[in-house]
Amino acid sequence: MNIKSSIFAMIFFMTTFAINADNEIYIDQVGSGADIDIKQDGSGNVMGGDEAQLAAGAPSKFVLDGLNLNFNAQMIGSSNKLFGSLYGDGINFDLDIDGSSNELSFDNDKDDVYGADNGDYVINISGGNNDLDLDVASLDAADNLDFDLILDGDFNVGDINIDASSLTFDLDITGDNNNLLYNASGYDGHNFVMTGVGSYWDIEVNQTSTLQSDSLEVEFSGSGTSTTDATICITQSDSGTATTCP
Fold it and tell me: Above 70 in pLDDT, residue 56?
């Protein structure tokens, strides 16, 4: 079966019979080596899981289950929602968001069922008031993860939790009043590089490794005021001990 063709056929079916003129895409993919490309254009769209739950407005997650998957999704517009769960090693996940007030929530094997090694994630968000919630693996189950996040806009919120060995995370932020919480845990060290321009940000970075060193590089330009702070809090531990900002 041509996996790519079957996915596009499913998308066409959903968009043809969409409710209230919004597009609703549901995906349940099982199998290795799939190449999936999706584009949604407009507002109020949903990319998620179970058809009946989506129709009822419930945040059901789509499923991508298999090795060496390539998933590319582009959502253009505002007030869109993406809910997803990934399972498997070698997943290339490329998400391009252009718009405001979008809700993005997905995870890769956060309960350590199959592992999430050798992943390559690229997320590019352009717009304001977007909400990103990302969880990757647990129990040190994501070896050699390469993650790039580009955030361009104001009042965006990110909550990122990664339990990985040999993690490289590059973050580039442009905009004001952005809020980011990043927690990294796992055995081997984590390499975090953050560059940004903007004001009134609230950024918290917690890196915890077990018997290995972590590294980070921060280059940020911006300011706050006496009434609106611009804060960055960074904690690191190489003993596996949980650390948090005050």
Answer: no
Q: Is residue 41 part of a domain?
A: yes
The answer to whether the CB of 156 falls within 8 A of the CB of 171 is no
Contacts of 95 (CB under 8 A, 6+ apart): 73, 74, 75, 82, 104, 121, 122, 123, 124
Asked if the structure places residue 243 within a domain, the reply is no
Contact 89, 62 (CB under 8 A): no
pLDDT of residue 18: 39
Whole domain around residue 177: which residue ranges?
A: 3-237
Please check whether residue 163 is in contact with residue 136, taking contact to mean a CB–CB distance below 8 angstroms.
yes
- Closest to 198 measured CA to CA, from 171, 176, 170: 176
What DSSP character marks residue 55? H
**Reported pTM:** 0.83
State whether residue 99 is helix, strand or coil.
Answer: coil
Report in angstroms the alpha-carbon separations of 35 from 30, 69, 75, 246.
12, 6, 18, 44
Residue 244 lies in a domain: no
Q: Which of 186, 187, 216, 221 is nearest to 204 (CA)?
A: 216
